[in-house]
TrEMBL record:
Name this protein carries in UniProt: ATP-binding cassette sub-family B member 6
Compositionally biased intervals (Low complexity): 298-306
Assembly mode: Homodimer.
TM ranges: 1-15
Family to which this protein belongs: Belongs to the ABC transporter superfamily. ABCB family. Heavy Metal importer (TC 3.A.1.210) subfamily.
Subcellular location: Cell membrane; Early endosome membrane; Endoplasmic reticulum membrane; Endosome membrane
Full protein: residues contained: 457 to 762 of 790
Location of the ABC transporter domain: 54-288
Source domain of life: Eukaryota
């Protein structure tokens, strides 16, 4: 009994710990990380939020001493503008997001938000001003309403409905058995990837942060879902400083700047037109995606898995 009980109990505790950590910290990028070396400096002040500009200044970082994952990265995201990170798997895109959220401290250089080094301000104040729409949203085992309201605890029902409408999920919610009171998550109604992402968008709209981090889903969605999600994402990013990890280059052709990351370095930068004109790495990624699109006969329907 003891042998059986211990691992089950351990698993339950561990699972709850990671789930809590995951959602509380909006730690969408690094589910399994439960410990942290990062702590607030004694007497650290709160972040004074201005218009939400972001700057990476000569940032180098490695998860361990043996290898640098980011090597001398510098870029700025002007208030209200959109910068996209693209590049092959393992290039360091998610790591950039984690450093901005201060899940880790940089080895060299600095990450600044509105001119303040993220190391010097409280983590709570930093994170409360950043909204995250992750690739895979984990929902609480609770109602749809609760899952959206998590973005702002004191939101009214009307605010929640407005956010859901702007996230293009309201009509869908009304088709659920108990509408906004429907239980979702592992023990409730299972939602599709596209639905969960729109719940995350509604939550972020309600949170109304100055800065938004988006991690675009890699999974294929059907054209309609894709269009709805793009429209909802557009509303989340509007007038907010946005950093997006893009997998489909078609979604970032209007980004103010695109940073092409490879092996921890920015190898190309510019807007879509600039980068095509450079006829380099980005241009070949673009060409590749056009060819893939033309050779894909049927798009999968990710909404159909309830
Ligand atoms: P993808 O598009 O596949 O998500 P990415 O560009 O976001 O890739 P990162 O997740 O930032 O890449 O990873 C960059 C490098 O850092 C990779 O080589 C990865 O193996 C390594 N790495 C990521 N997370 C950790 C970690 N927690 N500990 C050690 N190494 C890590």
């Amino acid at each position: 009994i003891v042998q059986l009980y211990v691992p089950l109990n351990w698993f339950g505790t561990y699972y709850r710990a990671i789930q809590k950590n995951f959602i509380d910290m909006e730690n969408m990028f690094d589910l399994m990380r439960v410990d942290s070396d990062v702590c607030d400096a004694p007497g650290a002040p709160d972040l004074l939020v201005g218009r939400g500009d972001i700057e990476f200044k000569h940032v180098s970082f490695g998860y361990g001493p043996e290898r640098l994952v980011l090597n001398n990265i510098s870029f700025k995201v002007a208030p209200g503008s959109t910068v996209a990170l693209v590049g092959p798997s393992g290039a360091g895109k998610s790591t950039v997001m984690r450093l901005l959220f201060r899940f880790y401290d940089v080895n060299e250089g600095a990450v600044l938000v509105d001119g303040q080094n993220v190391r010097t301000v409280t983590q709570a104040s930093l994170r409360s001003n950043i909204g995250v729409v992750p690739q895979d949203t984990v929902l609480f085992n609770n109602t749809v309403r609760y899952n959206i309201q998590y973005g702002r605890q004191n939101a009214t029902s009307a605010d929640i409905i407005t956010a859901a409408k702007n996230a293009d999920i309201h009509d869908r919610i009304l088709t659920f058995p108990d509408a906004y009171d429907t239980q979702v998550g592992e023990r409730g109604l299972r939602l599709s990837g596209g639905e969960k992402q729109r719940i995350a968008i509604a939550r972020t709209l309600l949170k109304d942060p100055t800065i938004v981090l988006l991690d675009e889903a890699t999974s294929a969605l059907d054209t309609n879902t894709e269009r709805n999600i793009q429209a909802a994402l557009g509303r989340v990013c509007a007038n907010r400083t946005t950093l997006i990890i893009a997998h489909r280059l078609s979604t970032i052709i209007h980004a103010d700047e695109i940073l092409v990351l490879k092996d921890g370095q920015i190898i190309e930068r510019g807007n879509h037109e600039d980068l095509l004109a450079q006829a380099g790495f980005y241009a070949s990624m673009w060409q590749q995606q056009l060819e893939n699109r033309n050779s894909t006969p049927n798009e999968t329907n990710a909404e159909g898995n309830n």
